[in-house]
Each structure stands twice: as C-alpha cells, then as structure tokens.
Design a protein that fits this description.
With about 90 residues, this protein is of the alpha+beta class. The chain has one domain. Helices cover about 20% and strands about 20% of the residues. It has two helices and three strands. A three-stranded antiparallel sheet has the order 1-2-3, with no helix packed on it. A hairpin with a 4-residue loop joins strand 2 and strand 3. The protein is globular, with a radius of gyration of 15 Å.
Length: about 90
C-alpha cells in the first residue's frame, strides 16, 4: 500500500536533513513523486515524477546561461528546455 506524505511549512535544518539523507529508495530514485519549493507565492523549484522532470524558475538571462553551462558537466542531463513566462518578465 502506498502512502502519501505532505510537508508544508518553512524549510528548517531538520527538514533539509530529512530530504538530503533519506531521499532515495532502494532503486536509487527519489522517494518523493513531487517536490515544490516556494518563497511566499513565488515558485522557485518543482521536481516531478520522482525527480525525472525538474523545473527551475529563473529570473535573468544570466541565470539561464549559468544553468545551461552547469548542466553540461553532468552527462545524465540529456537536455535543458527554456520556457519564458511572459507574466514574470519585467
């Protein structure tokens, strides 16, 4: 039987320890189907389908370039898609 866990609230040291030290199942996949991080109402990060579909919300072209360069260091990252949210553009 599967059980769903929902954590909601501030990111504390105890929470970080929990998701960083007990994050993977016996097959090496993230235990959590979805992880969302917000600052207030602002989306910061989304990870879906056990970490196979991460979404990072960036604000500047420089942040996008930095992410693209960083991702080249990891062969497991096969692609980076960039989507522009017109609502958040200055």
């Amino acid at each position: 039987m599967s059980r769903e866990q929902v954590f909601q609230g501030p990111i504390t040291e105890a929470f970080l320890r929990h998701i960083l030290t007990d994050a993977f199942d016996e097959d090496g996949r993230l235990k959590w189907f979805t992880i969302n991080f917000y600052r207030g109402e602002e989306n910061l990060f989304h990870s879906g389908h056990y970490g196979t579909e991460p979404v990072i919300y960036l604000k500047t072209e420089e942040e996008v370039r930095d992410l693209e360069e960083w991702s080249k260091k990891y062969p497991v990252i096969t692609r980076v898609d960039i989507y522009k949210n017109e609502e958040t553009q200055a």
